[in-house]
Amino acid sequence: MNFIDLQAQYARIEEQVSDRIQRVLNHGQYILGPEVQELEERLAEFIGVKHCIGVSSGTDALLVAMMALEIAPGDEVITTPFTFIATGEMIALLGAKPVFVDVDPTTYNIDFAKIEAAISSKTKAIMPVSLYGQCADFDAINEIAARHSLPVIEDGAQSLGATYKGRHSCGLSTIGCTSFFPSKPLGGYGESGACFSDDDQLAKTMREIRNHGQDRRYHHPIIGLNARIDTLQAAVLLAKLDIFPEEIEARRQIGARYSSMINQLGLPITTPVIAHGNTSVYAQYTLLSDNREQVLENLQSAKIPTAVHYPVPLNKQPALQTNQSDLQVAEYLADRVFSIPMHPYLSKADQDHIISALE
Fold first, then answer.
1. Tens digit of pLDDT for each residue in 108-157?
2. 187 shares its domain with 262
3. pTM above the 0.90 mark?
4. Contacts from 347-355 at CB under 8 Å and sequence distance 24+?
5. Is 24 found in the same domain as 49?
6. Last residue of some domain: 182, 206, 241?
7. Can you give the residue range of the structural domain that contains 77?
8. How many CB atoms are closer than 10 A to CB 41?
């Protein structure tokens, strides 16, 4: 049993992937080839925004977004401590300070009610993470941001395909960022990511930043990066995008079945809570148990792969450590959450086997 079964997906689209890759090999435009523009146009339409800018990774998407917003040394960016290191890491890389706000104990996303108290004269952006495939509460976050004239960057690395009140993740804020890491809901066969925005000037700036700050050949008005999406990755993603809506629905059904069956058993395990108005793409199916180590041991004995997302909150990471004492929910979750296999090709038989090992 695989934690994420990319082989089953590839077996379904092998011909389409091969055809797409062969086209790139035939035309030889490996950097910013026509597939990049096609992917950007299709993704912008899918999300419902004007602009999609393909970049080299989800991590670089965050960096490009913050550079476009001119986040600089000494600035502060408000974010969550309960996420992958990339979120805080890119803030720190720019010389800015990640200011952590605790998370909601139900959805595990940033607690919007605690954001305003963290805003200071140095705050330059708010960066919520849409964790495990479910969007944060963007209406509330955007309202706070608007009162303080702050941009909002969604870290949607895990949530592409999810919706919030009928709108797609990555189209809910000033800039949305996502990752196409292979294990993501829409994943390539290597590193890549994207930024999304309705702002024409920000989109133009992000396109320049990803290509060494270049607005035309050998003319560089701003400092940039080598952060272009690879044409071959765009080709793979185009093949996968054709079946993405079906996979989103499969993930939804599998997640709902997991929760229904686990809750029916009455186990002392907390299943994911999807907020009203949200849909989740279940990038991970994450449970919570006060007895995590024993549960993981039982799953391991049944040869079921597991993962912990995330065992150490960012405020406890050596590279980003803070003295904040108001992040108890994030620290509580880090000691108790664990994830079980989740992908669109998970069979009911495998689900039943996994659930039986939880009993």
1. 999 999 999 999 999 999 999 999 999 999 999 999 999 999 999 999 99
2. no
3. yes
4. 348/257, 350/1, 351/254, 351/257, 351/258, 351/261, 352/261, 353/1, 353/302, 353/304, 354/1, 354/299, 354/302, 354/304, 355/258, 355/261, 355/262, 355/265
5. yes
6. 241
7. 6-100+108-241
8. 12
